[in-house]
Amino acid sequence: MGWQSRIEAALTEQHRTAAYRRRVPLSGGNQRQLVHEGQTCLNFSGNDYLGLSRHPAVVAAWQRGAAEHGVGSGGSGHVTGYSEVHQRFEQRLADWQGYPRALLFISGFAANQALLAALLQPEDRVLADRLSHASLLEAALHAPCSLRRFAHNDAAALSRLLAKPVSGETLVVTEGVFSMDGDAAPLKALAADAQAHRAWLLVDDAHGIGVVGEQGAGSCRAQGVRPDLLVLTFGKAFGVSGAAVLCDDATAEFLLQRARHLIYSTAMPAAQVCALDAALTALIEGDALRDRLQQHIRRFREGVAGLPLQLAASATAIQPLIVGENQAALDLAAGLRARGIWASAIRPPTVPPGSARLRLTLTAAHQPGDIDTLLEALHAACG
Ligand code: PMP
Protein backbone atom coordinates (compact mmCIF):
# COMPACT_ATOMS: atom_id res chain seq x y z
CA MET A 1 0.00 0.00 0.00
CA GLY A 2 2.89 2.37 0.80
CA TRP A 3 3.28 4.78 3.71
CA GLN A 4 1.77 7.75 1.89
CA SER A 5 -1.43 5.99 0.84
CA ARG A 6 -1.83 4.37 4.24
CA ILE A 7 -1.65 7.76 5.94
CA GLU A 8 -3.99 9.38 3.42
CA ALA A 9 -6.53 6.58 3.85
CA ALA A 10 -6.48 7.05 7.61
CA LEU A 11 -7.03 10.79 7.28
CA THR A 12 -9.91 10.26 4.83
CA GLU A 13 -11.53 7.88 7.30
CA GLN A 14 -11.18 10.43 10.11
CA HIS A 15 -12.99 12.99 7.93
CA ARG A 16 -15.68 10.52 6.86
CA THR A 17 -16.62 9.76 10.46
CA ALA A 18 -16.49 13.40 11.63
CA ALA A 19 -13.69 12.25 13.94
CA TYR A 20 -10.91 14.44 12.48
CA ARG A 21 -8.98 16.06 15.31
CA ARG A 22 -7.38 19.49 15.14
CA ARG A 23 -5.37 21.60 17.49
CA VAL A 24 -6.09 25.30 17.40
CA PRO A 25 -3.56 27.86 18.56
CA LEU A 26 -5.04 29.93 21.38
CA SER A 27 -3.91 33.01 23.25
CA GLY A 28 -5.31 35.28 25.93
CA GLY A 29 -4.19 33.34 28.98
CA ASN A 30 -6.14 30.16 28.40
CA GLN A 31 -7.72 30.25 31.85
CA ARG A 32 -11.12 31.89 32.47
CA GLN A 33 -10.93 33.34 28.98
CA LEU A 34 -9.05 32.54 25.85
CA VAL A 35 -8.66 34.19 22.47
CA HIS A 36 -9.07 32.39 19.16
CA GLU A 37 -8.46 34.25 15.89
CA GLY A 38 -9.25 37.55 17.59
CA GLN A 39 -12.43 36.28 19.30
CA THR A 40 -12.43 36.29 23.10
CA CYS A 41 -14.28 33.30 24.52
CA LEU A 42 -15.13 32.09 27.98
CA ASN A 43 -13.18 28.89 28.48
CA PHE A 44 -15.26 25.90 29.59
CA SER A 45 -12.82 23.21 28.44
CA GLY A 46 -9.75 23.44 30.64
CA ASN A 47 -8.71 21.28 33.60
CA ASP A 48 -7.34 24.10 35.75
CA TYR A 49 -10.17 23.43 38.20
CA LEU A 50 -8.96 25.70 41.00
CA GLY A 51 -7.40 28.37 38.79
CA LEU A 52 -3.95 27.68 40.25
CA SER A 53 -2.12 27.94 36.92
CA ARG A 54 -2.10 31.70 37.47
CA HIS A 55 -1.97 31.76 41.25
CA PRO A 56 0.59 34.47 42.14
CA ALA A 57 2.43 32.26 44.66
CA VAL A 58 2.68 29.38 42.18
CA VAL A 59 3.94 31.60 39.36
CA ALA A 60 6.42 33.30 41.72
CA ALA A 61 7.68 29.93 42.98
CA TRP A 62 8.39 28.79 39.42
CA GLN A 63 10.20 32.06 38.67
CA ARG A 64 12.29 31.88 41.84
CA GLY A 65 12.98 28.21 41.18
CA ALA A 66 14.17 28.98 37.64
CA ALA A 67 16.46 31.73 38.93
CA GLU A 68 17.92 29.39 41.53
CA HIS A 69 17.99 26.01 39.75
CA GLY A 70 17.83 26.90 36.04
CA VAL A 71 15.07 25.86 33.68
CA GLY A 72 16.11 22.29 32.94
CA SER A 73 16.96 19.34 35.15
CA GLY A 74 19.91 18.36 32.97
CA GLY A 75 19.30 14.64 32.93
CA SER A 76 17.41 11.62 34.09
CA GLY A 77 16.78 11.39 37.80
CA HIS A 78 19.06 8.37 37.77
CA VAL A 79 21.95 10.52 36.61
CA THR A 80 21.92 14.18 37.72
CA GLY A 81 18.30 15.26 37.28
CA TYR A 82 17.10 14.45 40.80
CA SER A 83 17.67 17.15 43.40
CA GLU A 84 16.96 17.81 47.06
CA VAL A 85 14.02 19.89 45.84
CA HIS A 86 12.54 16.78 44.18
CA GLN A 87 13.25 14.66 47.23
CA ARG A 88 11.60 17.10 49.67
CA PHE A 89 8.50 17.46 47.50
CA GLU A 90 8.14 13.70 47.03
CA GLN A 91 8.28 13.27 50.81
CA ARG A 92 5.75 16.07 51.33
CA LEU A 93 3.37 14.42 48.86
CA ALA A 94 3.82 11.02 50.51
CA ASP A 95 3.20 12.43 54.01
CA TRP A 96 0.14 14.34 52.79
CA GLN A 97 -1.42 11.23 51.29
CA GLY A 98 -0.28 8.84 54.03
CA TYR A 99 2.08 6.70 51.93
CA PRO A 100 5.70 5.83 52.61
CA ARG A 101 6.80 6.99 49.17
CA ALA A 102 5.94 9.18 46.20
CA LEU A 103 7.78 9.16 42.86
CA LEU A 104 7.51 12.10 40.47
CA PHE A 105 6.86 11.50 36.77
CA ILE A 106 6.90 13.96 33.90
CA SER A 107 3.21 13.31 33.09
CA GLY A 108 0.27 11.19 34.14
CA PHE A 109 0.43 9.37 30.83
CA ALA A 110 4.07 8.43 31.48
CA ALA A 111 3.32 7.41 35.07
CA ASN A 112 0.55 5.02 34.06
CA GLN A 113 2.54 3.54 31.20
CA ALA A 114 5.59 3.06 33.39
CA LEU A 115 3.68 1.56 36.27
CA LEU A 116 1.83 -1.08 34.28
CA ALA A 117 4.80 -1.93 32.09
CA ALA A 118 7.02 -2.42 35.12
CA LEU A 119 4.61 -4.43 37.23
CA LEU A 120 2.81 -6.84 34.93
CA GLN A 121 4.00 -10.27 33.84
CA PRO A 122 2.42 -12.74 31.35
CA GLU A 123 0.58 -14.78 33.99
CA ASP A 124 -1.05 -11.66 35.50
CA ARG A 125 -4.30 -9.94 34.66
CA VAL A 126 -5.59 -6.39 34.69
CA LEU A 127 -9.24 -5.81 35.53
CA ALA A 128 -10.05 -2.25 34.49
CA ASP A 129 -13.14 -0.12 34.56
CA ARG A 130 -14.09 0.09 30.91
CA LEU A 131 -14.05 3.90 30.98
CA SER A 132 -10.52 4.12 32.35
CA HIS A 133 -8.28 6.70 30.72
CA ALA A 134 -6.41 5.84 27.52
CA SER A 135 -3.09 5.95 29.39
CA LEU A 136 -4.25 3.07 31.59
CA LEU A 137 -6.08 0.96 29.01
CA GLU A 138 -3.35 1.36 26.46
CA ALA A 139 -0.69 0.38 29.00
CA ALA A 140 -2.73 -2.68 29.93
CA LEU A 141 -3.18 -3.61 26.26
CA HIS A 142 0.55 -3.38 25.67
CA ALA A 143 1.42 -5.32 28.83
CA PRO A 144 2.16 -9.02 28.35
CA CYS A 145 -0.75 -10.05 30.62
CA SER A 146 -4.49 -10.38 29.97
CA LEU A 147 -6.90 -7.45 30.20
CA ARG A 148 -10.59 -7.65 31.09
CA ARG A 149 -12.72 -4.54 31.37
CA PHE A 150 -15.60 -4.45 33.78
CA ALA A 151 -18.81 -2.44 33.35
CA HIS A 152 -18.36 1.15 34.44
CA ASN A 153 -18.42 1.56 38.22
CA ASP A 154 -19.98 -1.91 38.61
CA ALA A 155 -18.45 -3.54 41.70
CA ALA A 156 -20.54 -6.70 41.18
CA ALA A 157 -19.11 -7.08 37.67
CA LEU A 158 -15.62 -6.76 39.12
CA SER A 159 -16.44 -9.39 41.77
CA ARG A 160 -17.48 -11.85 39.07
CA LEU A 161 -14.18 -11.38 37.26
CA LEU A 162 -12.17 -11.58 40.46
CA ALA A 163 -13.83 -14.89 41.31
CA LYS A 164 -12.23 -16.48 38.22
CA PRO A 165 -8.85 -18.05 38.98
CA VAL A 166 -5.60 -16.63 37.67
CA SER A 167 -2.12 -18.08 37.99
CA GLY A 168 -0.39 -14.73 38.51
CA GLU A 169 -1.31 -11.46 40.20
CA THR A 170 -4.34 -9.25 39.61
CA LEU A 171 -4.30 -5.48 39.27
CA VAL A 172 -7.66 -3.68 39.51
CA VAL A 173 -7.61 -0.32 37.76
CA THR A 174 -10.01 2.57 38.10
CA GLU A 175 -10.19 6.34 38.41
CA GLY A 176 -11.31 8.43 41.37
CA VAL A 177 -13.30 10.79 39.13
CA PHE A 178 -13.81 9.78 35.50
CA SER A 179 -12.30 12.20 33.05
CA MET A 180 -15.06 12.24 30.45
CA ASP A 181 -18.06 11.75 32.76
CA GLY A 182 -17.13 13.44 36.02
CA ASP A 183 -18.68 10.69 38.14
CA ALA A 184 -16.94 9.03 41.09
CA ALA A 185 -15.91 5.39 41.38
CA PRO A 186 -17.36 3.30 44.25
CA LEU A 187 -13.89 2.97 45.70
CA LYS A 188 -14.90 1.36 48.97
CA ALA A 189 -16.62 -1.56 47.27
CA LEU A 190 -13.87 -1.96 44.68
CA ALA A 191 -11.14 -1.87 47.34
CA ALA A 192 -12.93 -4.43 49.53
CA ASP A 193 -13.35 -6.78 46.57
CA ALA A 194 -9.76 -6.39 45.47
CA GLN A 195 -8.48 -7.00 48.97
CA ALA A 196 -10.66 -10.09 49.43
CA HIS A 197 -8.99 -11.58 46.35
CA ARG A 198 -5.47 -10.43 47.24
CA ALA A 199 -5.51 -8.20 44.18
CA TRP A 200 -3.92 -4.77 44.12
CA LEU A 201 -5.99 -1.67 43.44
CA LEU A 202 -4.66 1.22 41.36
CA VAL A 203 -6.63 4.46 41.53
CA ASP A 204 -5.82 7.29 39.12
CA ASP A 205 -7.22 10.38 40.82
CA ALA A 206 -6.19 12.89 38.16
CA HIS A 207 -9.55 14.66 38.33
CA GLY A 208 -10.39 14.18 42.01
CA ILE A 209 -7.23 15.45 43.64
CA GLY A 210 -7.61 19.05 44.78
CA VAL A 211 -11.32 19.07 44.00
CA VAL A 212 -12.77 16.25 46.09
CA GLY A 213 -12.40 15.60 49.81
CA GLU A 214 -11.39 17.65 52.80
CA GLN A 215 -8.59 20.05 51.92
CA GLY A 216 -8.70 18.63 48.41
CA ALA A 217 -7.04 15.39 49.54
CA GLY A 218 -8.84 13.53 46.77
CA SER A 219 -11.32 10.76 46.08
CA CYS A 220 -9.57 8.06 48.13
CA ARG A 221 -9.38 10.08 51.31
CA ALA A 222 -12.98 11.22 50.78
CA GLN A 223 -14.14 7.62 50.54
CA GLY A 224 -11.85 6.31 53.30
CA VAL A 225 -9.85 4.09 50.96
CA ARG A 226 -6.09 3.67 50.61
CA PRO A 227 -5.32 1.95 47.30
CA ASP A 228 -2.07 0.04 46.87
CA LEU A 229 -1.12 2.41 44.09
CA LEU A 230 -2.36 5.97 43.81
CA VAL A 231 -1.63 8.09 40.75
CA LEU A 232 -1.95 11.86 41.04
CA THR A 233 -1.52 14.21 38.13
CA PHE A 234 -0.57 17.86 38.36
CA GLY A 235 -2.00 19.23 35.11
CA LYS A 236 -5.48 19.62 36.53
CA ALA A 237 -6.29 21.12 39.96
CA PHE A 238 -2.57 21.71 40.68
CA GLY A 239 -2.52 23.96 37.61
CA VAL A 240 0.95 22.82 36.50
CA SER A 241 1.83 19.44 34.91
CA GLY A 242 3.51 16.20 35.90
CA ALA A 243 2.38 13.31 38.07
CA ALA A 244 3.26 11.19 41.07
CA VAL A 245 2.85 7.54 41.98
CA LEU A 246 2.24 6.89 45.68
CA CYS A 247 3.10 3.47 46.98
CA ASP A 248 5.01 1.48 49.60
CA ASP A 249 8.76 1.52 49.97
CA ALA A 250 9.56 -1.72 48.16
CA THR A 251 7.32 -0.81 45.20
CA ALA A 252 9.02 2.58 44.91
CA GLU A 253 12.44 0.91 44.89
CA PHE A 254 11.19 -1.64 42.34
CA LEU A 255 9.93 1.18 40.10
CA LEU A 256 13.29 2.90 40.34
CA GLN A 257 14.82 -0.31 38.92
CA ARG A 258 12.19 -0.96 36.25
CA ALA A 259 10.16 2.15 35.32
CA ARG A 260 11.67 2.99 31.96
CA HIS A 261 9.87 6.35 31.78
CA LEU A 262 11.90 7.39 34.82
CA ILE A 263 15.19 5.78 33.97
CA TYR A 264 15.45 6.84 30.32
CA SER A 265 13.79 10.25 30.45
CA THR A 266 14.86 13.71 31.56
CA ALA A 267 13.56 14.50 35.04
CA MET A 268 11.09 17.27 35.76
CA PRO A 269 12.91 20.59 36.18
CA ALA A 270 13.44 21.58 39.83
CA ALA A 271 11.81 24.95 39.11
CA GLN A 272 8.61 23.12 38.17
CA VAL A 273 8.82 21.17 41.41
CA CYS A 274 9.04 24.51 43.25
CA ALA A 275 5.82 25.56 41.49
CA LEU A 276 4.18 22.26 42.43
CA ASP A 277 5.19 22.74 46.04
CA ALA A 278 3.54 26.18 46.09
CA ALA A 279 0.50 24.73 44.29
CA LEU A 280 0.17 22.02 46.93
CA THR A 281 0.10 24.67 49.66
CA ALA A 282 -2.51 26.69 47.76
CA LEU A 283 -4.54 23.55 47.10
CA ILE A 284 -4.55 22.42 50.73
CA GLU A 285 -5.53 25.95 51.82
CA GLY A 286 -8.00 26.23 48.94
CA ASP A 287 -11.34 25.64 50.67
CA ALA A 288 -12.60 29.01 49.40
CA LEU A 289 -11.71 27.98 45.83
CA ARG A 290 -13.48 24.64 46.25
CA ASP A 291 -16.56 26.39 47.68
CA ARG A 292 -16.62 28.73 44.73
CA LEU A 293 -16.31 25.81 42.31
CA GLN A 294 -19.16 23.98 44.07
CA GLN A 295 -21.35 27.08 43.77
CA HIS A 296 -20.64 27.19 40.03
CA ILE A 297 -21.48 23.48 39.72
CA ARG A 298 -24.83 23.96 41.49
CA ARG A 299 -25.65 27.03 39.43
CA PHE A 300 -24.84 25.20 36.21
CA ARG A 301 -26.78 22.04 37.02
CA GLU A 302 -29.87 23.97 38.08
CA GLY A 303 -29.73 26.14 34.99
CA VAL A 304 -29.22 23.32 32.53
CA ALA A 305 -32.29 21.37 33.61
CA GLY A 306 -34.90 21.63 30.88
CA LEU A 307 -32.44 21.58 28.01
CA PRO A 308 -32.92 18.73 25.53
CA LEU A 309 -29.52 17.33 26.46
CA GLN A 310 -28.44 14.53 28.76
CA LEU A 311 -26.59 15.91 31.79
CA ALA A 312 -24.18 13.41 33.34
CA ALA A 313 -24.55 12.48 37.02
CA SER A 314 -21.51 14.46 38.14
CA ALA A 315 -20.87 16.47 41.28
CA THR A 316 -17.42 17.52 40.09
CA ALA A 317 -15.88 20.18 37.87
CA ILE A 318 -16.48 17.97 34.82
CA GLN A 319 -20.05 18.51 33.61
CA PRO A 320 -20.49 16.73 30.27
CA LEU A 321 -23.53 17.18 28.08
CA ILE A 322 -24.05 13.98 26.13
CA VAL A 323 -25.19 14.75 22.60
CA GLY A 324 -24.87 11.38 20.82
CA GLU A 325 -23.65 11.71 17.25
CA ASN A 326 -20.29 13.23 16.37
CA GLN A 327 -21.66 15.84 14.01
CA ALA A 328 -24.31 16.95 16.51
CA ALA A 329 -21.60 17.50 19.14
CA LEU A 330 -19.49 19.47 16.65
CA ASP A 331 -22.54 21.56 15.67
CA LEU A 332 -23.37 22.37 19.28
CA ALA A 333 -19.75 23.32 19.99
CA ALA A 334 -19.80 25.58 16.92
CA GLY A 335 -23.12 27.13 18.06
CA LEU A 336 -21.60 27.94 21.43
CA ARG A 337 -18.40 29.24 19.85
CA ALA A 338 -20.47 31.71 17.83
CA ARG A 339 -21.79 32.96 21.18
CA GLY A 340 -18.36 33.35 22.78
CA ILE A 341 -18.24 30.03 24.63
CA TRP A 342 -15.30 27.66 24.20
CA ALA A 343 -16.50 24.09 24.76
CA SER A 344 -14.78 21.12 23.17
CA ALA A 345 -16.67 18.33 21.47
CA ILE A 346 -15.31 14.96 22.58
CA ARG A 347 -15.89 12.06 20.19
CA PRO A 348 -15.11 8.35 19.99
CA PRO A 349 -12.70 6.70 20.55
CA THR A 350 -12.13 9.04 23.52
CA VAL A 351 -15.73 8.24 24.58
CA PRO A 352 -17.91 5.21 23.66
CA PRO A 353 -19.55 5.21 20.19
CA GLY A 354 -22.81 7.17 20.07
CA SER A 355 -21.95 9.23 23.16
CA ALA A 356 -20.20 12.22 21.64
CA ARG A 357 -20.43 15.08 24.08
CA LEU A 358 -19.48 18.52 25.12
CA ARG A 359 -17.08 18.06 27.98
CA LEU A 360 -17.81 21.23 29.89
CA THR A 361 -15.53 22.01 32.79
CA LEU A 362 -16.02 24.62 35.46
CA THR A 363 -13.25 26.26 37.44
CA ALA A 364 -12.88 28.46 40.49
CA ALA A 365 -11.44 31.03 38.08
CA HIS A 366 -14.92 31.51 36.60
CA GLN A 367 -17.26 34.19 37.91
CA PRO A 368 -20.94 33.47 38.64
CA GLY A 369 -21.94 35.62 35.64
CA ASP A 370 -19.80 33.36 33.40
CA ILE A 371 -21.98 30.40 34.30
CA ASP A 372 -25.08 32.44 33.42
CA THR A 373 -23.52 33.39 30.09
CA LEU A 374 -22.84 29.71 29.39
CA LEU A 375 -26.43 28.77 30.26
CA GLU A 376 -27.88 31.50 28.04
CA ALA A 377 -25.70 30.38 25.15
CA LEU A 378 -26.71 26.74 25.66
CA HIS A 379 -30.42 27.64 25.68
CA ALA A 380 -29.97 29.75 22.56
CA ALA A 381 -27.91 27.08 20.75
CA CYS A 382 -30.43 24.36 21.57
CA GLY A 383 -33.52 26.49 20.98
N1 PMP B 1 -5.13 9.94 33.89
C1 PMP B 1 -6.30 10.52 33.67
C2 PMP B 1 -7.51 10.00 34.35
C3 PMP B 1 -6.39 11.62 32.80
O1 PMP B 1 -7.55 12.20 32.55
C4 PMP B 1 -5.21 12.08 32.18
C5 PMP B 1 -5.17 13.25 31.21
N2 PMP B 1 -6.22 14.02 31.06
C6 PMP B 1 -4.03 11.43 32.43
C7 PMP B 1 -4.01 10.36 33.30
C8 PMP B 1 -2.75 11.86 31.78
O2 PMP B 1 -2.18 12.84 32.55
P1 PMP B 1 -1.16 13.88 31.90
O3 PMP B 1 -2.00 14.90 31.22
O4 PMP B 1 -0.41 14.40 33.07
O5 PMP B 1 -0.30 13.11 30.97
Automatic annotation (TrEMBL):
Biological pathway: Cofactor biosynthesis; biotin biosynthesis
Aminotransferase class I/classII large domain span: 40-378
Gene Ontology terms, MF aspect: 8-amino-7-oxononanoate synthase activity; pyridoxal phosphate binding
Record PTM N6-(pyridoxal phosphate)lysine, positions in chain: 236
Alphabetized SUPFAM superfamilies for the sequence: PLP-dependent transferases
Documented EC number(s): 2.3.1.47
Cofactor: pyridoxal 5'-phosphate
Keywords: Biotin biosynthesis, Pyridoxal phosphate, Transferase
Pfam families in the record: Aminotran_1_2
Domain of life of the native organism: Bacteria
GO BP annotation list: biotin biosynthetic process
Reactions mediated catalytically: 6-carboxyhexanoyl-[ACP] + L-alanine + H(+) = (8S)-8-amino-7-oxononanoate + holo-[ACP] + CO2
InterPro entries: Aminotrans_II_pyridoxalP_BS, Aminotransferase_I/II_large, AON_synthase_class-II, AONS_Archaea/Proteobacteria, AONS_Proteobacteria, PyrdxlP-dep_Trfase, PyrdxlP-dep_Trfase_major, PyrdxlP-dep_Trfase_small
Annotated positions binding substrate: 21, 133, 350
Binding site for pyridoxal 5'-phosphate: 108-109, 179, 207, 233
Record family assignment: Belongs to the class-II pyridoxal-phosphate-dependent aminotransferase family. BioF subfamily.
Known partners and oligomeric status: Homodimer.
Function in brief: Catalyzes the decarboxylative condensation of pimeloyl-[acyl-carrier protein] and L-alanine to produce 8-amino-7-oxononanoate (AON), [acyl-carrier protein], and carbon dioxide.
Protein name: 8-amino-7-oxononanoate synthase
